[in-house]
TrEMBL record:
Organism of this sequence: Roseicitreum antarcticum
Database matches in InterPro entries: HTH_MarR-typ, MarR/SlyA-like, WH-like_DNA-bd_sf, WH_DNA-bd_sf
Gene Ontology BP term (one): response to stress
Protein name (record): DNA-binding transcriptional regulator, MarR family
Taxonomy, superkingdom: Bacteria
Length: 141
């Protein structure tokens, strides 16, 4: 795939990086009006999808380094979007849950994300999107 003749755009890794940048920037612009970073949206979705999630598990899912994740979660706690709860089964563990305000924010943000998802599907087509999704999941594994 990557050839000297094609330049940087001939490399799959560059195409992936360029696509990620475009998609991330588009979503970032839309979420900015809600006062939410893309990473904060991913955190809210992960918390919503997995009850009693720990910081360690969350870091794996949202692809953030633990120190960065901690700072962002601290800000979300201060903003009233997320709450920390001590585990009922093991007091050494702290779980994250969305507050009522966090759930409302997640629902509003989800509308933007779903609209972007629909636009992406329209751009590449359902079959290509399915193949791309499978290929990206294979690369990430």
């Amino acid at each position: 795939m990557g050839s000297a003749r094609a330049g940087m755009t001939g490399y799959l890794s560059c195409a992936l990086a360029a696509a990620h940048r475009t998609v991330h920037q588009e979503l970032s612009r839309k979420l900015k009006d809600e006062g939410v970073q893309v990473e904060a949206w991913r955190i809210m979705e992960a918390i919503d999808a997995e009850s009693a999630i720990t910081m360690g598990r969350l870091a794996e899912i949202v692809l953030l380094a633990p120190p960065t994740l901690t700072k962002l979660v601290d800000r979300m706690v201060a903003d009233g979007l997320v709450q920390r709860q001590i585990s009922q089964t093991d007091s050494r563990h702290v779980h994250l849950v969305l507050s009522a305000m966090g759930e409302r924010k997640r629902d509003r943000v989800r509308q933007f994300v779903q609209a972007q998802e629909a636009a992406l599907l329209e751009r590449v087509g359902a079959d290509n999107a399915r193949m791309l999704h499978n290929a990206l999941n294979s690369l990430a594994a």
